[in-house]
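Predict the 3D structure for this chain.
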Amino acid sequence: MTGGRAAADALLFDMDGTLVDSTAVVERTWADFSLRHGLDVEEVLAFAHGRPTASTTAHFLDDTDAAVAEAARLAALEERTVDGIVEVPGAAALVAGLPEDRWAVVTSAGRRLAERRLDAAGVPRPTVLVTADDVARPKPDPEGYLLAARLLGVPVEACVAFEDSEAGVRAAVASGARTVVVGTLSSYDGTLHRVVDLTGPDVPGLATTTADRS
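Done. Predicted structure below.
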């Protein structure tokens, strides 16, 4: 990230690809789905990244009942599978050092899956966890980020959001939060700050402390 440390009143994190590296599990899951339905796995993965499972199955399957059934099957499969899930470098240490009322997770995963993956990666669970179960409009809609900021009691414009996917970045930007791209997504280079992971000295920090808001 260029331009030094970005001050914020709160930090909002996506989960998969941002705090948790679940690449191996995600790729196995969507490869299974693609094989069952004769779909191109690369096309499926490109669409699925950053979106709820149900949004992806509905996009690729014309039969609504089949799409719902597949979403439920895949969700159960993902919840059972934690092998290979690790933290994005620096994630656990970063959030463990934050006041609990200054950070949140906004994920397209369901609540049970989110908790399983955070635990498997050794990343502390946040007090404010906004999942696919909590919103009517998933990413790229900004609803999740707006809800997280509201639950923290912080204006979304005073938050920094961390995202790794196209759908997620679009959601974060649309919410009004200052947005940092994590990982290899380069389509916003020159527009948004980008960090490889959460270990570097340029990861944004908090401008205020708990005492400042008491």
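The chain has a mean pLDDT of 89.
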